[in-house]
């Protein structure tokens, strides 16, 4: 069952069997350059379980993104809870397989997720927490209409927060 569809993508919930797909990103040192390190399979399984828990508890999470034409895995995108300055926010997250970078897929996925969050899930505000040196992710947040809000630590990560209000959609 698909959560969302765009012109080129379908979105579905993660399941344990997706661990090898997630590892396509988590084991790539370039895709993970703005994270503390690459991650082993055990962390990918925990990631999947965390998302499955989010689906149950908050009604959303990161979803598997696949190309419509051949069902190949391109990445993950969705909405997850995030604690920022001791307050829970809902964050648009995206992480794509490197061989699919530069094709507009992450932007297409993030726009669809943003619209879904506002129209279907009823959120009035969404954020993106981005490591302050991650220029590609910052540019994506700006492309989907998010604006710089502040720089802060999220956990141990020195991040910038971008946000958008439902009533600010153009």
What does this structure look like?
With 170 residues, the protein is of the alpha+beta class. It is built from four helices and eight strands. A five-stranded antiparallel beta sheet has the order 1-2-3-4-5, sandwiched between helices. It is globular, with a radius of gyration of 15 Å. The termini are far apart. The model has no long low-confidence stretch (mean pLDDT 95).
Task: Give structural attributes.
170 residues, alpha+beta, three-stranded antiparallel sheet, 4 helices, 8 strands
Concise synopsis of the structure shown:
This protein is α+β, with helices and mostly antiparallel strands. It is built from four helices and eight strands; from the N terminus they run ββααβββαβαββ.
In DSSP terms (H or I, runs of 4 or more residues), the helix count works out at 4
Largest sheet: 5 strands, antiparallel
Secondary-structure class: alpha+beta
Number of strands: 8
**In order across it, which strands form the biggest sheet?**
1-2-3-4-5
| Distance N to C terminus | 30 Å
Summarize the SSE layout with pairings.
Layout: E1 4-5, E2 9-13, H1 19-26, H2 41-57, E3 62-67, E4 73-84, E5 87-96, H3 105-119, E6 125-131, H4 135-143, E7 147-154, E8 157-165
Antiparallel strand pairs: 1-2, 2-3, 3-4, 4-5, 6-8, 7-8
């Amino acid at each position: 069952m698909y959560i969302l569809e765009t012109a080129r993508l379908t979105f579905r919930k993660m399941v344990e069997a997706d661990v090898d797909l997630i590892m396509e990103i988590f084991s790539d040192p370039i895709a993970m350059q703005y994270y503390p390190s690459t991650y082993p399979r055990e962390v990918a399984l925990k990631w999947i379980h965390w998302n499955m828990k989010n689906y149950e508890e908050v009604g959303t999470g990161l979803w598997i993104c696949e190309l419509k034409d051949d069902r190949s895995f391109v990445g993950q995108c969705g909405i997850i809870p995030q604690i920022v300055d001791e307050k829970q926010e809902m964050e648009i997250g995206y992480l794509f397989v490197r061989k699919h970078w530069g094709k507009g897929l992450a932007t297409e996925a993030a726009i669809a997720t943003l619209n879904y969050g506002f129209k279907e899930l009823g959120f009035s505000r969404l954020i993106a927490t981005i490591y302050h040196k991650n220029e590609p992710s910052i540019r994506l947040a700006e492309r989907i209409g998010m604006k710089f809000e502040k720089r802060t630590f999220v956990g141990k990560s020195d991040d910038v927060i971008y946000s958008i209000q439902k009533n600010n959609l153009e």
